[in-house]
Amino acid sequence: MAETIDVGTHAGDDHGHDHHHEETFWSKYVFSTDHKMIGMQYMFTGMFMALIGGFFAYAFRMQLAFPGMDVPFWGIVTPAEYNALITNHGAIMIFWVAMPVLIAAFGNFLIPLMIGCDDMVFPKLNRLSYQIFLLSAVVLLASFVVENGGFGGAWTSYPPLSAKHEYSLTPLGSSLWITAVALEFVAFLIGGINFVTTAMNSRAPGMKLYDIPMVVWMIVVASILFMASVGPLIAGAIMLFMDQNLGTHFFDPNAGGDPILWQHLFWFFGHPEVYVVLLPATGITAEVMCVFARKKLFAYRTVLYTTFGTGVLSFTVWAHHQFIAGIDPRMAHVFTITTLLISIPIAEMMFVYIATLYGGDIRLKTPMLWALAFIAEFLIGGVTGIFLGASGADIYFHDTYFVLAHFHYTFFPIAIIGVYAGVTFWYPKMFGKMMNDTLGKIHFWGTIIPFNCIFIPLFVLGAAGQHRRIHDFTQYPELAQYQDVRVFATVSLVIMLLFQFVFIYNFFMSLRKGKDAGPNPWNSTTLEWTTESPPGHGNWKELPTVYRGPYEYQVPGRDKDFWPQNEPN
Ligand code: HEM
Ligand SMILES: [Cu+2]
Fold this sequence. Notes:
This protein is mostly helical. Helices cover 65% and strands 0% of the residues. It is built from 17 helices and no strands. Bound molecules: protoporphyrin IX containing FE and copper (II) ion (CU). Protoporphyrin IX containing FE binds next to helix 9, helix 11, helix 12, helix 13 and helix 14.
Protein backbone atom coordinates (compact mmCIF):
# COMPACT_ATOMS: atom_id res chain seq x y z
CA MET A 1 0.00 0.00 0.00
CA ALA A 2 1.43 3.25 -1.09
CA GLU A 3 -0.33 6.14 0.58
CA THR A 4 0.80 6.06 4.16
CA ILE A 5 -2.15 8.19 5.21
CA ASP A 6 -4.45 5.35 4.20
CA VAL A 7 -3.05 3.13 6.88
CA GLY A 8 -5.19 4.66 9.57
CA THR A 9 -8.42 4.71 7.60
CA HIS A 10 -8.09 1.14 6.45
CA ALA A 11 -6.57 -0.31 9.57
CA GLY A 12 -9.58 -2.51 10.13
CA ASP A 13 -9.68 -3.86 6.58
CA ASP A 14 -9.12 -7.57 6.46
CA HIS A 15 -7.93 -7.61 2.86
CA GLY A 16 -4.66 -5.87 3.65
CA HIS A 17 -2.65 -4.60 0.70
CA ASP A 18 -4.89 -5.89 -2.02
CA HIS A 19 -7.91 -3.70 -1.44
CA HIS A 20 -6.58 -1.36 -4.13
CA HIS A 21 -8.74 -0.18 -6.97
CA GLU A 22 -8.55 -1.95 -10.33
CA GLU A 23 -5.17 -1.31 -11.93
CA THR A 24 -5.25 -0.01 -15.46
CA PHE A 25 -2.25 0.28 -17.76
CA TRP A 26 -1.99 3.96 -16.84
CA SER A 27 -2.26 3.52 -13.09
CA LYS A 28 0.15 0.58 -13.10
CA TYR A 29 2.91 1.70 -15.46
CA VAL A 30 2.65 5.46 -15.87
CA PHE A 31 1.12 7.06 -12.80
CA SER A 32 2.10 4.44 -10.27
CA THR A 33 3.29 5.53 -6.86
CA ASP A 34 4.86 2.14 -6.17
CA HIS A 35 8.56 2.63 -5.45
CA LYS A 36 9.46 -0.41 -7.57
CA MET A 37 7.64 0.89 -10.63
CA ILE A 38 9.17 4.35 -10.23
CA GLY A 39 12.56 2.69 -9.93
CA MET A 40 11.89 0.85 -13.21
CA GLN A 41 10.80 4.06 -14.89
CA TYR A 42 14.06 5.68 -13.86
CA MET A 43 15.99 2.63 -15.00
CA PHE A 44 14.45 2.43 -18.45
CA THR A 45 14.66 6.19 -19.00
CA GLY A 46 18.32 6.09 -17.92
CA MET A 47 19.06 3.20 -20.26
CA PHE A 48 17.37 4.95 -23.14
CA MET A 49 19.45 8.06 -22.48
CA ALA A 50 22.58 5.86 -22.29
CA LEU A 51 21.90 4.74 -25.85
CA ILE A 52 21.78 8.37 -26.95
CA GLY A 53 24.89 9.28 -24.96
CA GLY A 54 26.69 6.23 -26.36
CA PHE A 55 25.68 7.11 -29.90
CA PHE A 56 27.06 10.63 -29.42
CA ALA A 57 30.38 9.16 -28.27
CA TYR A 58 30.42 7.00 -31.36
CA ALA A 59 29.82 10.00 -33.62
CA PHE A 60 32.51 12.26 -32.17
CA ARG A 61 35.08 9.51 -31.80
CA MET A 62 34.58 8.66 -35.46
CA GLN A 63 35.31 12.29 -36.28
CA LEU A 64 38.51 12.13 -34.21
CA ALA A 65 39.67 8.94 -35.92
CA PHE A 66 38.63 9.81 -39.47
CA PRO A 67 38.43 13.62 -39.66
CA GLY A 68 36.20 15.01 -42.33
CA MET A 69 34.77 11.67 -43.41
CA ASP A 70 31.12 10.73 -43.49
CA VAL A 71 30.27 9.02 -40.22
CA PRO A 72 27.82 6.17 -40.80
CA PHE A 73 24.38 7.04 -39.33
CA TRP A 74 25.43 10.64 -38.84
CA GLY A 75 27.23 12.21 -41.81
CA ILE A 76 29.92 14.87 -41.63
CA VAL A 77 30.53 16.03 -38.05
CA THR A 78 30.91 19.81 -38.26
CA PRO A 79 32.87 21.65 -35.54
CA ALA A 80 29.62 22.99 -34.06
CA GLU A 81 28.10 19.53 -34.04
CA TYR A 82 31.26 18.12 -32.51
CA ASN A 83 30.98 20.59 -29.63
CA ALA A 84 27.32 19.79 -29.10
CA LEU A 85 28.07 16.06 -29.18
CA ILE A 86 30.82 16.14 -26.55
CA THR A 87 28.90 18.59 -24.37
CA ASN A 88 25.77 16.53 -24.33
CA HIS A 89 27.55 13.20 -24.16
CA GLY A 90 29.07 14.26 -20.83
CA ALA A 91 25.94 15.91 -19.52
CA ILE A 92 23.74 12.97 -20.47
CA MET A 93 26.02 10.33 -19.01
CA ILE A 94 26.27 12.08 -15.66
CA PHE A 95 22.90 13.73 -15.20
CA TRP A 96 20.63 11.49 -17.26
CA VAL A 97 22.30 8.10 -16.89
CA ALA A 98 24.48 7.79 -13.78
CA MET A 99 22.21 9.83 -11.50
CA PRO A 100 18.87 8.30 -12.50
CA VAL A 101 20.06 4.73 -12.65
CA LEU A 102 22.42 4.62 -9.67
CA ILE A 103 20.58 6.81 -7.23
CA ALA A 104 17.01 6.93 -8.40
CA ALA A 105 16.49 3.48 -9.91
CA PHE A 106 18.44 1.50 -7.34
CA GLY A 107 17.46 3.81 -4.50
CA ASN A 108 13.81 3.47 -5.30
CA PHE A 109 13.85 -0.21 -5.95
CA LEU A 110 16.12 -1.23 -3.09
CA ILE A 111 15.56 1.03 -0.10
CA PRO A 112 12.06 -0.12 0.93
CA LEU A 113 12.86 -3.74 0.04
CA MET A 114 16.13 -3.78 1.94
CA ILE A 115 14.88 -2.09 5.07
CA GLY A 116 11.62 -4.02 5.14
CA CYS A 117 8.77 -1.57 4.52
CA ASP A 118 6.00 -1.32 1.96
CA ASP A 119 6.89 1.91 0.16
CA MET A 120 8.62 5.27 0.35
CA VAL A 121 7.40 7.68 2.98
CA PHE A 122 6.17 10.16 0.35
CA PRO A 123 5.02 8.12 -2.65
CA LYS A 124 3.41 10.99 -4.52
CA LEU A 125 6.48 13.17 -4.14
CA ASN A 126 8.39 10.23 -5.50
CA ARG A 127 6.23 10.12 -8.59
CA LEU A 128 6.53 13.89 -9.00
CA SER A 129 10.30 13.54 -8.89
CA TYR A 130 10.23 11.10 -11.79
CA GLN A 131 7.84 13.26 -13.78
CA ILE A 132 10.06 16.32 -13.43
CA PHE A 133 13.04 14.19 -14.38
CA LEU A 134 11.22 12.96 -17.48
CA LEU A 135 10.36 16.54 -18.37
CA SER A 136 14.02 17.48 -18.00
CA ALA A 137 15.00 14.73 -20.43
CA VAL A 138 12.40 15.92 -22.94
CA VAL A 139 13.65 19.51 -22.68
CA LEU A 140 17.21 18.29 -23.20
CA LEU A 141 16.27 16.27 -26.26
CA ALA A 142 14.35 19.26 -27.60
CA SER A 143 17.51 21.36 -27.34
CA PHE A 144 19.09 19.34 -30.17
CA VAL A 145 16.39 19.99 -32.72
CA VAL A 146 15.84 23.74 -32.32
CA GLU A 147 17.32 26.33 -34.65
CA ASN A 148 21.15 26.39 -34.56
CA GLY A 149 21.20 23.07 -32.71
CA GLY A 150 22.23 21.91 -29.26
CA PHE A 151 24.49 23.63 -26.76
CA GLY A 152 28.21 23.13 -27.33
CA GLY A 153 29.90 24.93 -24.44
CA ALA A 154 31.04 21.75 -22.62
CA TRP A 155 29.20 19.95 -19.84
CA THR A 156 30.73 22.36 -17.33
CA SER A 157 29.18 25.23 -19.26
CA TYR A 158 31.74 27.86 -18.33
CA PRO A 159 30.86 31.50 -19.02
CA PRO A 160 31.48 33.77 -20.82
CA LEU A 161 31.12 31.23 -23.64
CA SER A 162 27.86 29.93 -22.22
CA ALA A 163 26.48 33.26 -21.08
CA LYS A 164 26.46 35.12 -24.38
CA HIS A 165 24.61 33.98 -27.44
CA GLU A 166 27.12 35.81 -29.63
CA TYR A 167 29.74 33.38 -28.37
CA SER A 168 27.87 30.14 -28.11
CA LEU A 169 25.90 30.65 -31.34
CA THR A 170 23.13 28.42 -30.00
CA PRO A 171 20.70 30.84 -28.32
CA LEU A 172 17.81 28.43 -27.92
CA GLY A 173 19.94 25.34 -27.46
CA SER A 174 21.87 26.92 -24.56
CA SER A 175 18.76 28.09 -22.76
CA LEU A 176 16.98 24.77 -23.14
CA TRP A 177 20.11 23.00 -21.97
CA ILE A 178 20.46 25.02 -18.77
CA THR A 179 16.71 24.69 -18.15
CA ALA A 180 16.95 20.92 -18.55
CA VAL A 181 19.85 20.73 -16.13
CA ALA A 182 18.03 22.88 -13.55
CA LEU A 183 14.89 20.75 -13.84
CA GLU A 184 16.91 17.61 -13.40
CA PHE A 185 18.41 19.01 -10.21
CA VAL A 186 14.98 19.85 -8.87
CA ALA A 187 13.82 16.30 -9.58
CA PHE A 188 16.66 14.81 -7.56
CA LEU A 189 16.27 17.35 -4.80
CA ILE A 190 12.70 16.14 -4.37
CA GLY A 191 13.66 12.49 -4.74
CA GLY A 192 16.42 12.61 -2.13
CA ILE A 193 13.96 13.65 0.58
CA ASN A 194 12.27 10.28 0.24
CA PHE A 195 15.41 8.22 0.40
CA VAL A 196 16.72 9.80 3.55
CA THR A 197 13.37 9.91 5.35
CA THR A 198 12.42 6.38 4.39
CA ALA A 199 15.71 4.81 5.40
CA MET A 200 15.68 6.63 8.72
CA ASN A 201 12.02 6.18 9.64
CA SER A 202 10.52 3.10 8.01
CA ARG A 203 12.89 0.31 8.95
CA ALA A 204 11.47 -3.07 9.89
CA PRO A 205 11.18 -3.78 13.61
CA GLY A 206 14.55 -4.88 14.93
CA MET A 207 16.64 -3.23 12.23
CA LYS A 208 19.21 -1.09 13.98
CA LEU A 209 21.39 1.45 12.19
CA TYR A 210 24.26 -1.03 11.91
CA ASP A 211 21.92 -3.63 10.39
CA ILE A 212 21.23 -1.48 7.34
CA PRO A 213 22.82 -2.93 4.21
CA MET A 214 25.76 -0.84 3.01
CA VAL A 215 24.22 0.09 -0.32
CA VAL A 216 21.27 1.71 1.45
CA TRP A 217 23.61 3.71 3.65
CA MET A 218 25.61 4.83 0.66
CA ILE A 219 22.57 5.92 -1.30
CA VAL A 220 21.38 7.85 1.74
CA VAL A 221 24.72 9.62 2.16
CA ALA A 222 24.83 10.30 -1.59
CA SER A 223 21.36 11.85 -1.41
CA ILE A 224 22.40 14.08 1.46
CA LEU A 225 25.53 15.15 -0.44
CA PHE A 226 23.43 15.96 -3.45
CA MET A 227 20.88 17.95 -1.49
CA ALA A 228 23.58 19.87 0.34
CA SER A 229 25.59 20.74 -2.75
CA VAL A 230 23.06 21.42 -5.47
CA GLY A 231 21.47 24.59 -4.10
CA PRO A 232 24.27 26.94 -5.21
CA LEU A 233 24.26 25.43 -8.68
CA ILE A 234 20.51 25.74 -9.12
CA ALA A 235 20.99 29.39 -8.23
CA GLY A 236 23.90 29.53 -10.68
CA ALA A 237 21.78 27.95 -13.40
CA ILE A 238 19.11 30.59 -12.91
CA MET A 239 21.74 33.32 -13.02
CA LEU A 240 23.19 31.88 -16.21
CA PHE A 241 19.73 31.67 -17.74
CA MET A 242 19.18 35.31 -16.83
CA ASP A 243 22.52 36.31 -18.35
CA GLN A 244 21.50 34.50 -21.51
CA ASN A 245 18.00 35.88 -21.81
CA LEU A 246 17.34 38.84 -19.54
CA GLY A 247 20.49 40.91 -20.01
CA THR A 248 21.93 40.48 -16.52
CA HIS A 249 25.73 40.26 -16.17
CA PHE A 250 26.43 37.95 -13.27
CA PHE A 251 29.20 36.22 -15.17
CA ASP A 252 30.14 38.90 -17.68
CA PRO A 253 33.50 40.52 -16.86
CA ASN A 254 32.86 43.45 -19.19
CA ALA A 255 29.97 44.57 -17.03
CA GLY A 256 31.47 43.83 -13.64
CA GLY A 257 30.42 40.20 -13.49
CA ASP A 258 32.73 37.34 -12.61
CA PRO A 259 33.09 34.23 -14.78
CA ILE A 260 35.11 32.52 -12.05
CA LEU A 261 32.06 32.71 -9.80
CA TRP A 262 30.41 30.16 -12.06
CA GLN A 263 33.36 27.84 -11.67
CA HIS A 264 33.01 27.98 -7.90
CA LEU A 265 29.27 27.36 -8.02
CA PHE A 266 29.69 24.60 -10.54
CA TRP A 267 32.49 22.72 -8.80
CA PHE A 268 31.17 23.24 -5.30
CA PHE A 269 28.41 21.04 -6.63
CA GLY A 270 30.43 19.19 -9.23
CA HIS A 271 32.97 17.56 -7.01
CA PRO A 272 30.53 16.26 -4.40
CA GLU A 273 28.53 15.09 -7.40
CA VAL A 274 31.24 12.62 -8.32
CA TYR A 275 30.79 11.07 -4.89
CA VAL A 276 27.03 11.20 -5.30
CA VAL A 277 27.38 8.68 -8.10
CA LEU A 278 30.44 6.93 -6.70
CA LEU A 279 28.86 5.94 -3.39
CA PRO A 280 25.84 4.01 -4.72
CA ALA A 281 28.10 2.08 -7.11
CA THR A 282 30.49 1.31 -4.26
CA GLY A 283 27.54 0.13 -2.20
CA ILE A 284 26.28 -2.13 -4.97
CA THR A 285 29.76 -3.63 -5.21
CA ALA A 286 29.74 -4.35 -1.47
CA GLU A 287 26.43 -6.23 -1.65
CA VAL A 288 27.46 -8.28 -4.67
CA MET A 289 30.86 -9.16 -3.21
CA CYS A 290 29.54 -10.39 0.10
CA VAL A 291 27.03 -12.67 -1.62
CA PHE A 292 29.47 -14.13 -4.15
CA ALA A 293 32.36 -14.46 -1.71
CA ARG A 294 30.06 -15.79 1.03
CA LYS A 295 31.69 -13.43 3.51
CA LYS A 296 30.77 -10.71 5.91
CA LEU A 297 31.76 -7.23 4.75
CA PHE A 298 35.18 -6.67 6.30
CA ALA A 299 34.96 -3.74 8.74
CA TYR A 300 31.36 -2.64 8.17
CA ARG A 301 31.57 0.20 10.65
CA THR A 302 34.83 1.50 9.26
CA VAL A 303 33.33 1.59 5.78
CA LEU A 304 30.33 3.41 7.13
CA TYR A 305 32.35 6.07 8.96
CA THR A 306 34.58 6.39 5.93
CA THR A 307 31.51 7.04 3.82
CA PHE A 308 30.48 9.89 6.10
CA GLY A 309 34.05 11.20 6.13
CA THR A 310 34.34 11.11 2.35
CA GLY A 311 31.08 12.96 2.12
CA VAL A 312 32.30 15.77 4.33
CA LEU A 313 35.71 15.93 2.65
CA SER A 314 34.15 16.07 -0.80
CA PHE A 315 32.96 19.59 0.00
CA THR A 316 36.50 20.84 0.53
CA VAL A 317 38.23 20.01 -2.73
CA TRP A 318 36.33 21.77 -5.50
CA ALA A 319 38.99 24.26 -6.52
CA HIS A 320 41.27 21.45 -7.72
CA HIS A 321 39.30 21.98 -10.93
CA GLN A 322 40.50 25.57 -10.99
CA PHE A 323 44.23 25.27 -10.54
CA ILE A 324 44.75 27.07 -13.83
CA ALA A 325 42.01 29.65 -13.22
CA GLY A 326 44.39 32.15 -11.68
CA ILE A 327 44.19 30.77 -8.17
CA ASP A 328 46.63 32.04 -5.53
CA PRO A 329 49.35 29.35 -5.19
CA ARG A 330 48.91 29.32 -1.41
CA MET A 331 45.27 28.48 -1.90
CA ALA A 332 46.24 25.87 -4.48
CA HIS A 333 48.30 24.17 -1.75
CA VAL A 334 45.27 23.96 0.49
CA PHE A 335 43.21 22.35 -2.24
CA THR A 336 46.05 20.01 -3.11
CA ILE A 337 46.17 18.84 0.47
CA THR A 338 42.42 18.28 0.79
CA THR A 339 42.40 16.52 -2.59
CA LEU A 340 45.16 14.16 -1.63
CA LEU A 341 43.43 13.57 1.70
CA ILE A 342 40.28 12.38 0.00
CA SER A 343 42.21 9.63 -1.74
CA ILE A 344 42.80 8.03 1.65
CA PRO A 345 39.22 7.04 2.51
CA ILE A 346 38.61 5.96 -1.07
CA ALA A 347 41.71 3.76 -1.04
CA GLU A 348 40.73 2.41 2.34
CA MET A 349 37.35 1.33 1.02
CA MET A 350 39.00 -0.55 -1.80
CA PHE A 351 41.31 -2.29 0.68
CA VAL A 352 38.33 -3.27 2.80
CA TYR A 353 36.76 -4.79 -0.28
CA ILE A 354 39.87 -6.74 -1.12
CA ALA A 355 40.03 -7.93 2.49
CA THR A 356 36.41 -9.07 2.15
CA LEU A 357 37.39 -11.23 -0.81
CA TYR A 358 40.36 -12.70 1.08
CA GLY A 359 39.67 -16.32 1.99
CA GLY A 360 36.18 -16.11 0.53
CA ASP A 361 34.37 -18.93 -1.26
CA ILE A 362 34.35 -16.97 -4.50
CA ARG A 363 31.73 -17.67 -7.18
CA LEU A 364 32.45 -16.04 -10.50
CA LYS A 365 28.94 -15.38 -11.72
CA THR A 366 28.32 -12.35 -13.94
CA PRO A 367 27.47 -9.88 -11.15
CA MET A 368 30.66 -10.87 -9.31
CA LEU A 369 32.80 -10.32 -12.40
CA TRP A 370 31.41 -6.81 -12.60
CA ALA A 371 32.08 -6.22 -8.90
CA LEU A 372 35.69 -7.35 -9.22
CA ALA A 373 36.16 -5.22 -12.31
CA PHE A 374 34.80 -2.25 -10.42
CA ILE A 375 37.63 -2.46 -7.92
CA ALA A 376 40.33 -3.06 -10.53
CA GLU A 377 39.29 -0.28 -12.91
CA PHE A 378 38.37 2.22 -10.25
CA LEU A 379 41.83 1.92 -8.70
CA ILE A 380 43.33 3.23 -11.94
CA GLY A 381 40.97 6.20 -11.81
CA GLY A 382 41.81 6.92 -8.19
CA VAL A 383 45.55 6.68 -8.62
CA THR A 384 45.59 9.00 -11.64
CA GLY A 385 43.48 11.46 -9.67
CA ILE A 386 46.38 11.84 -7.28
CA PHE A 387 48.58 13.11 -10.13
CA LEU A 388 45.97 15.71 -10.98
CA GLY A 389 45.42 16.68 -7.38
CA ALA A 390 49.01 17.93 -7.17
CA SER A 391 48.54 21.49 -8.38
CA GLY A 392 51.95 21.70 -10.02
CA ALA A 393 51.41 18.62 -12.15
CA ASP A 394 47.85 19.63 -12.93
CA ILE A 395 48.96 22.85 -14.58
CA TYR A 396 50.45 20.63 -17.25
CA PHE A 397 47.69 18.01 -17.35
CA HIS A 398 44.67 20.27 -17.09
CA ASP A 399 42.20 19.94 -19.94
CA THR A 400 44.27 17.30 -21.66
CA TYR A 401 43.25 13.77 -22.52
CA PHE A 402 44.97 12.69 -19.32
CA VAL A 403 42.14 14.28 -17.34
CA LEU A 404 39.67 12.74 -19.72
CA ALA A 405 41.15 9.28 -19.20
CA HIS A 406 41.29 9.82 -15.43
CA PHE A 407 37.66 10.58 -15.03
CA HIS A 408 36.56 7.91 -17.42
CA TYR A 409 38.45 5.42 -15.27
CA THR A 410 36.34 6.64 -12.37
CA PHE A 411 33.03 7.22 -14.11
CA PHE A 412 33.06 4.11 -16.22
CA PRO A 413 33.40 1.79 -13.23
CA ILE A 414 30.68 3.79 -11.54
CA ALA A 415 28.12 4.44 -14.21
CA ILE A 416 28.65 1.37 -16.37
CA ILE A 417 30.31 -1.36 -14.31
CA GLY A 418 28.42 -0.53 -11.12
CA VAL A 419 25.12 -0.42 -12.98
CA TYR A 420 25.76 -3.74 -14.70
CA ALA A 421 26.77 -5.31 -11.38
CA GLY A 422 23.52 -4.10 -9.86
CA VAL A 423 21.24 -4.94 -12.75
CA THR A 424 22.59 -8.46 -13.24
CA PHE A 425 22.47 -9.06 -9.48
CA TRP A 426 18.94 -7.77 -8.79
CA TYR A 427 17.41 -8.72 -12.13
CA PRO A 428 15.92 -11.93 -10.66
CA LYS A 429 14.26 -9.86 -7.95
CA MET A 430 13.04 -7.21 -10.38
CA PHE A 431 11.55 -9.58 -12.91
CA GLY A 432 11.37 -13.02 -11.30
CA LYS A 433 13.61 -14.54 -13.98
CA MET A 434 17.30 -15.39 -14.22
CA MET A 435 19.49 -13.74 -16.82
CA ASN A 436 21.60 -15.96 -19.01
CA ASP A 437 25.02 -16.21 -17.34
CA THR A 438 26.97 -17.19 -20.46
CA LEU A 439 25.64 -14.22 -22.40
CA GLY A 440 26.37 -12.15 -19.31
CA LYS A 441 30.02 -13.20 -19.38
CA ILE A 442 30.36 -12.58 -23.10
CA HIS A 443 28.97 -9.11 -22.53
CA PHE A 444 31.32 -8.59 -19.60
CA TRP A 445 34.52 -9.40 -21.52
CA GLY A 446 33.24 -7.64 -24.62
CA THR A 447 32.88 -4.50 -22.52
CA ILE A 448 35.90 -4.62 -20.22
CA ILE A 449 38.60 -5.38 -22.77
CA PRO A 450 37.62 -2.67 -25.28
CA PHE A 451 37.07 -0.20 -22.44
CA ASN A 452 40.72 -0.43 -21.45
CA CYS A 453 41.74 -0.25 -25.10
CA ILE A 454 39.89 3.03 -25.41
CA PHE A 455 41.21 4.80 -22.38
CA ILE A 456 44.74 3.60 -21.65
CA PRO A 457 45.89 5.16 -24.96
CA LEU A 458 44.20 8.40 -23.94
CA PHE A 459 46.49 8.72 -20.92
CA VAL A 460 49.38 8.54 -23.37
CA LEU A 461 47.85 11.14 -25.66
CA GLY A 462 47.17 13.42 -22.72
CA ALA A 463 50.71 13.14 -21.45
CA ALA A 464 51.86 13.99 -24.98
CA GLY A 465 49.93 17.23 -24.73
CA GLN A 466 46.72 16.47 -26.58
CA HIS A 467 44.17 19.03 -25.44
CA ARG A 468 40.48 18.26 -24.90
CA ARG A 469 37.58 19.57 -26.96
CA ILE A 470 39.31 19.94 -30.31
CA HIS A 471 37.56 18.88 -33.46
CA ASP A 472 40.49 17.79 -35.60
CA PHE A 473 43.95 17.06 -34.22
CA THR A 474 45.52 16.38 -37.59
CA GLN A 475 45.83 20.12 -38.04
CA TYR A 476 48.58 20.12 -35.38
CA PRO A 477 51.74 18.47 -36.71
CA GLU A 478 52.95 17.42 -33.26
CA LEU A 479 49.64 15.64 -32.63
CA ALA A 480 48.98 14.39 -36.16
CA GLN A 481 51.55 11.66 -35.62
CA TYR A 482 49.28 10.01 -33.04
CA GLN A 483 46.46 9.42 -35.47
CA ASP A 484 46.86 5.63 -35.23
CA VAL A 485 46.29 5.81 -31.50
CA ARG A 486 43.05 7.68 -32.05
CA VAL A 487 41.91 5.14 -34.62
CA PHE A 488 42.70 2.32 -32.19
CA ALA A 489 40.67 3.98 -29.41
CA THR A 490 37.77 4.61 -31.76
CA VAL A 491 37.65 1.08 -33.14
CA SER A 492 37.69 -0.19 -29.56
CA LEU A 493 34.76 2.05 -28.76
CA VAL A 494 32.74 0.72 -31.68
CA ILE A 495 33.46 -2.86 -30.57
CA MET A 496 32.43 -2.02 -27.02
CA LEU A 497 29.20 -0.39 -28.16
CA LEU A 498 28.32 -3.39 -30.31
CA PHE A 499 28.73 -5.71 -27.32
CA GLN A 500 26.11 -3.70 -25.45
CA PHE A 501 23.53 -5.23 -27.75
CA VAL A 502 24.40 -8.60 -26.20
CA PHE A 503 23.23 -7.16 -22.91
CA ILE A 504 20.07 -5.67 -24.37
CA TYR A 505 19.29 -9.00 -26.03
CA ASN A 506 19.96 -10.91 -22.80
CA PHE A 507 17.84 -8.46 -20.81
CA PHE A 508 14.76 -8.83 -22.97
CA MET A 509 15.23 -12.46 -23.95
CA SER A 510 15.50 -13.48 -20.29
CA LEU A 511 12.25 -11.70 -19.49
CA ARG A 512 10.47 -14.23 -21.69
CA LYS A 513 12.70 -17.29 -21.62
CA GLY A 514 14.74 -16.99 -18.40
CA LYS A 515 14.51 -19.65 -15.71
CA ASP A 516 12.14 -18.79 -12.87
CA ALA A 517 14.23 -17.19 -10.17
CA GLY A 518 12.29 -17.98 -7.03
CA PRO A 519 12.56 -15.66 -4.05
CA ASN A 520 16.27 -16.09 -3.29
CA PRO A 521 18.33 -17.50 -6.17
CA TRP A 522 21.73 -16.32 -4.86
CA ASN A 523 21.17 -17.50 -1.25
CA SER A 524 21.48 -13.95 0.05
CA THR A 525 20.81 -12.72 3.55
CA THR A 526 19.28 -9.28 3.05
CA LEU A 527 15.56 -8.62 3.28
CA GLU A 528 14.70 -8.04 -0.36
CA TRP A 529 15.29 -11.77 -0.95
CA THR A 530 12.72 -12.82 1.63
CA THR A 531 9.72 -11.89 -0.48
CA GLU A 532 8.53 -13.23 -3.81
CA SER A 533 10.19 -12.20 -7.11
CA PRO A 534 9.02 -9.79 -8.34
CA PRO A 535 7.54 -8.47 -5.11
CA GLY A 536 3.85 -7.60 -5.22
CA HIS A 537 2.33 -4.26 -4.32
CA GLY A 538 3.21 -3.63 -0.68
CA ASN A 539 6.31 -5.86 -0.98
CA TRP A 540 5.45 -8.43 1.69
CA LYS A 541 2.28 -10.22 2.78
CA GLU A 542 3.51 -9.56 6.28
CA LEU A 543 6.34 -7.12 6.91
CA PRO A 544 9.54 -8.80 8.15
CA THR A 545 11.24 -8.49 11.53
CA VAL A 546 15.02 -8.21 11.68
CA TYR A 547 17.23 -10.21 14.03
CA ARG A 548 20.77 -9.61 12.81
CA GLY A 549 23.20 -7.77 10.57
CA PRO A 550 23.10 -7.96 6.79
CA TYR A 551 26.00 -10.25 5.92
CA GLU A 552 25.88 -13.44 7.99
CA TYR A 553 27.50 -15.97 5.67
CA GLN A 554 29.16 -19.25 6.65
CA VAL A 555 28.32 -18.83 10.31
CA PRO A 556 29.89 -21.80 12.14
CA GLY A 557 27.49 -24.36 13.51
CA ARG A 558 24.66 -23.71 11.05
CA ASP A 559 23.54 -26.10 8.36
CA LYS A 560 22.92 -23.45 5.70
CA ASP A 561 25.82 -21.19 4.70
CA PHE A 562 23.72 -18.05 5.04
CA TRP A 563 21.55 -16.65 7.77
CA PRO A 564 18.85 -14.27 6.51
CA GLN A 565 18.27 -11.10 8.49
CA ASN A 566 14.67 -12.05 9.24
CA GLU A 567 15.28 -15.58 10.55
CA PRO A 568 14.88 -15.88 14.32
CA ASN A 569 17.78 -17.46 16.20
C1 HEM B 1 40.31 9.37 -5.69
C2 HEM B 1 40.63 10.58 -5.71
C3 HEM B 1 40.45 11.56 -6.85
C4 HEM B 1 41.31 12.59 -7.03
C5 HEM B 1 42.51 12.89 -6.18
C6 HEM B 1 40.83 13.33 -8.18
C7 HEM B 1 41.41 14.47 -8.67
C8 HEM B 1 40.99 15.18 -9.77
C9 HEM B 1 41.51 16.45 -10.20
C10 HEM B 1 42.60 17.23 -9.48
C11 HEM B 1 40.86 16.84 -11.32
C12 HEM B 1 41.05 18.12 -12.12
C13 HEM B 1 41.92 17.89 -13.27
C14 HEM B 1 41.90 19.03 -14.25
O1 HEM B 1 40.81 19.40 -14.72
O2 HEM B 1 42.99 19.56 -14.53
C15 HEM B 1 39.92 15.82 -11.61
C16 HEM B 1 39.06 15.85 -12.67
C17 HEM B 1 37.94 15.06 -12.76
N1 HEM B 1 37.63 14.01 -11.92
FE1 HEM B 1 38.76 13.31 -10.40
N2 HEM B 1 39.72 12.75 -8.67
C18 HEM B 1 39.43 11.66 -7.88
C19 HEM B 1 38.36 10.83 -8.03
C20 HEM B 1 37.34 11.03 -8.94
C21 HEM B 1 36.11 10.32 -8.97
C22 HEM B 1 35.70 9.25 -7.97
C23 HEM B 1 35.39 10.79 -10.02
C24 HEM B 1 34.05 10.41 -10.53
C25 HEM B 1 33.13 9.80 -9.91
C26 HEM B 1 36.17 11.81 -10.65
C27 HEM B 1 35.74 12.53 -11.74
C28 HEM B 1 36.40 13.56 -12.31
C29 HEM B 1 35.91 14.35 -13.43
C30 HEM B 1 34.56 14.18 -14.14
C31 HEM B 1 36.89 15.27 -13.73
C32 HEM B 1 36.94 16.24 -14.90
C33 HEM B 1 35.99 17.30 -14.89
C34 HEM B 1 36.07 18.12 -16.16
O3 HEM B 1 36.94 18.99 -16.26
O4 HEM B 1 35.25 17.89 -17.07
N3 HEM B 1 37.36 11.94 -9.97
N4 HEM B 1 40.02 14.82 -10.64
CU1 LIG C 1 36.94 17.13 -8.33
